[in-house]
Specification:
The chain has 128 residues and is mainly alpha-helical. Helix 3 packs antiparallel against helix 4 and helix 4 runs antiparallel to helix 5. It is elongated.
């Protein structure tokens, strides 16, 4: 049961990123403020739209991966995006609403750990 879940978990993760990005594009103002970004400013709206586009691109890359190497590469790109999100939320000023943004920043390291464990569980094509 667990071995079958490990096989589909990266694809489910990709679908989750794709759906999240689509929701951010559809409801930029409402969801941007939940992410700790001041969407009353035009720079905040631009930031949320750029993050949404990034989520859609990374999610579609993970979904369309043809082999395990591309899947690992897509998850690695996602992990790098999470690290940049962490830095933005913890040290960002200007368009970030600080109490909310810092709370979100504290949630990012556990997500990184889960993504790393998923990435490590992907076996190469030749391995069993």
């Amino acid at each position: 049961m667990i071995s079958q879940l490990i096989k589909i978990l990266p694809r489910l993760m990709g679908w989750g990123f794709l759906i999240l990005g689509g929701m951010l594009l559809a409801w930029t103002r409402q969801l941007g403020s939940l992410l700790g970004v001041d969407t009353k400013k035009s720079s905040g709206l631009a930031l949320v739209r750029a993050l949404a586009l990034r989520e859609v691109i990374i999610g579609s890359f993970i979904i369309r991966a043809k082999d395990s190497q591309q899947l690992k590469q897509g998850i690695l790109i996602r992990m790098l995006a999470e690290i940049s999100d962490f830095a933005m939320h913890m040290f960002g000023k200007g368009v970030f609403i600080q109490p909310t943004s810092r709370r979100i920043g504290y949630m990012i390291p556990p997500v990184l750990l889960v993504e790393f464990l998923i990435r490590c569980s992907i076996k190469e094509q030749g391995q069993k």
